[in-house]
Design brief:
mainly alpha; 3 domains; two-stranded antiparallel ribbon; 2 strands; 57% helix
């Protein structure tokens, strides 16, 4: 273990990497005896490999039974520092990597990235872009805006709507979106659905987005704005979240943005990524590459740290693997939907050409059950069981 801990001192580290290494060493001091008890046989010669190896030690190989309670937060902080370092180092490669290397990196990590599910979200979002937020059912509006609810029926939303920057913690934004969706439509209207997006387009969006909060006690912040922009034009805008912003800004070599840096977001994030060699080269020589090229501004997100737990952290996965009903002393508890939402979800399912006509004829009954909280698939299967 000692050899592993000191090995980066023999690597040709840049100034940022050296500072990260020193911070990790300081964090390791309090649990040094516990770390020294771990036998290490793999000694990577690069800093990224070193971070992965030490993270594996801190997550899976250290003896947690021998840790005192006051040391557990130290271990967690060490893990977080290593995860941030890995994200920084991987995103940093985007500054010089060519397109084939970018697409290969993502393809090779497709399982751990839950890539299929993430791309399903973007395919679904593509069907919504021509619609106004104020005309969408609530579930679709929240899918576009990045907030998951139990009403996102897994038979329709076969993905976690919070991929590519969750906005669930932006309560003020969601209150305004619920009250004044048309105001955000006015903001998004400044961003063309095709062709170049200019600074003037972005400035028009920014002014309208900020104006949507006029007369409200809620404060407009940057992160949810970038989620809307990224869903509108995933080939132009990269969404940001507070927990990954340090790694992204470090990798791009810019000072960390604060939550009101609308001007710097355009210059330091959007324009910086657009100038990278791979961005101009992005094209499709395969089906996967074509899909990635269509959402190329989202690709930096695939370079953040991901592991085997990424899949199980998906809200879609959690919904699939939890009981559909919970019984309490007061009876059966379920999530009710609006009649409009239930009708929309059911009509989408019934539009399948393979759906039998006698099942389609039960549309009103199916809608009534879905409105009560039963899933679309569950209700249709019940109808098939009853009526054949």
């Amino acid at each position: 273990m000692k050899k592993l801990l000191i090995s980066p001192s023999n690597m040709a580290l840049g100034e940022q990497e050296s500072q990260i290494y020193q911070n990790i060493l300081k964090q390791s001091t309090e649990i040094s005896l516990n770390l020294m008890a771990v036998k290490v046989e793999n000694h990577p010669e690069d800093f990224l490999g070193w971070c992965y190896e030490l993270l594996d030690v801190a997550k899976n190989r250290i003896n947690f039974d021998l840790l005192d309670d006051h040391q557990l937060p130290t271990v967690k902080k060490l893990q977080d520092m290593l995860i941030s370092a890995i994200s920084f180092l991987q995103v940093k490669t985007l500054r010089i990597a060519p397109w084939p290397m970018i697409s290969d990196f993502i393809a090779q990590r497709s399982d751990v990235l839950v890539l299929e599910e993430q791309l399903k979200l973007m395919e679904y979002i593509a069907t919504l872009r021509d619609n106004k937020l104020q005309d969408m059912i609530i579930e679709d509006r929240l899918a576009f805006a990045g907030k998951h609810t139990a009403k996102h029926d897994t038979s329709v939303y076969q993905f976690d709507v919070e991929w590519f920057a969750s906005t669930k913690s932006a309560k003020g934004f969601h209150q305004q979106l619920a009250d004044l969706p048309g105001a955000f439509d006015e903001a998004l209207a400044h961003i063309p659905l095709e062709g170049p997006v200019t600074l003037e387009n972005y400035q028009g969006f920014t002014i309208a987005f900020l104006s949507a909060f006029n007369g409200s006690d809620e404060k407009p912040t940057l992160a949810p704005a970038t989620r809307l922009l990224a869903m509108r034009r995933p080939d132009v805008f990269t969404p940001i979240t507070n927990n990954r912003l340090d790694a992204l800004c470090q990798a791009l070599g810019v000072t960390r943005l604060n939550n009101r840096d609308f001007e710097r977001y355009w210059q330091d994030i959007v324009q910086a990524i657009a100038k990278m060699p791979w961005f101009a080269m992005a094209c499709g020589t395969s089906e996967l590459e074509s899909k990635l090229a269509e959402v190329k501004a989202l690709l930096p997100i695939f370079f953040y740290y991901a592991d085997e737990d990424t899949k199980t952290s998906s809200n879609y996965y959690k919904l699939l693997h939890k009981p559909k009903r919970t019984t309490t002393s007061s009876g059966t508890k379920s999530v009710r939907r609006s009649k409009e939402s239930a009708a929309t979800l059911v009509d989408r399912a019934l539009s399948d050409e393979s759906m039998p006509e006698h099942i389609r004829s039960k549309r009103d009954s199916i809608i009534a059950e879905v409105e009560k909280g039963r899933s679309v698939d569950e209700t249709i299967q019940l109808m098939r069981t009853i009526f054949g």
